[in-house]
Each structure stands twice: as C-alpha cells, then as structure tokens.
Amino acid sequence: MKRFALLFAFAILVTPIALSSSSTIAAGGQHGTHGMKHSFRVAQYDAFHDVLHPLQHEALPAKDFRRIRNKAALLAKRGNAIVRLGVPRGVTETNKAEFGKELSKFKAANTSFKTASTKGTDAELEASFNAIHDSFEMLAGMLPRT
Hints:
The protein is mainly alpha-helical. It folds into 2 domains: 34 residues; 105 residues, Up-down Bundle (Four Helix Bundle (Hemerythrin (Met), subunit A)). 76% of the residues lie in helices and 0% in strands. The protein has 5 helices and no strands. Helix 2 packs antiparallel against helix 3, helix 3 packs antiparallel against helix 4 and helix 4 packs antiparallel against helix 5. The longest helix has 27 residues. About 23% of the residues have low confidence.
C-alpha cells in the first residue's frame, strides 16, 4: 500500500511536467511546427525567417493584419537582401537556373507584399503575404543541405 501511495504521488508530480514537455515538443519548441529554431546556413535566409515565422504562425492565423503591416518594411528589407544575394554558394550548376527562376518569383512577391502592406486591403495583404511565404519556402527547400 505504501508503495502504491509513493507511485501515485510520483505520477501526480511527473504528469504535469511530462505534459508540458510534450506539448512544447508537439508545438515545435520555440518555433511552432518547424521544430527548434531553423538555420538555413545562409544568413539572409535566417534573418528573413526570423521575421516571417511569427507572422505566419501567430499573426496570420489571428488575422492580425496590423502586426503584419507593422513588420512589413522589415520583412521586405530582409527579402531584398535575399534578392541581392542571388543564388547562394553551394547550389549546383544544374539547379542554378531553377533557383534563379524561383528567386525572380520571390522578388516579385516581395514587391507585391511591400505595396499591399501600405496600400492594399487586408485580403490583398493576406494574399501577398501567402505568396511571399510560399516562394520563400520554395527557395529554402532548394538550398544546399550541407
């Protein structure tokens, strides 16, 4: 009986800690479903993602367009840094043309997003934000995995 009481007390103490840890893990730690803080191993991509991620996973689901507009200039500036970088080192010769095409799409999406953030409706802002997010995801997926 004493053993059962000790096990019961231990379970009561450990369960909240375990649930807290598992919910943090399920939520991906500090960066949602992406897991722990991402590193794309390209500074411009990391800097862009640092601004993009909370907007994508917190502001957009909450339809917090004011927050997105407040961060738009910074996101666009960091997007411009990706465009200026061009095709990063490590992208294979066979993938450079495809990467360049996606980079052109990203540049256009970045310009549209910047315009929508100052002059567009919430619906236009949301559409342009989704476009820049999706284009970034395509570029990030094409980065070397070294």
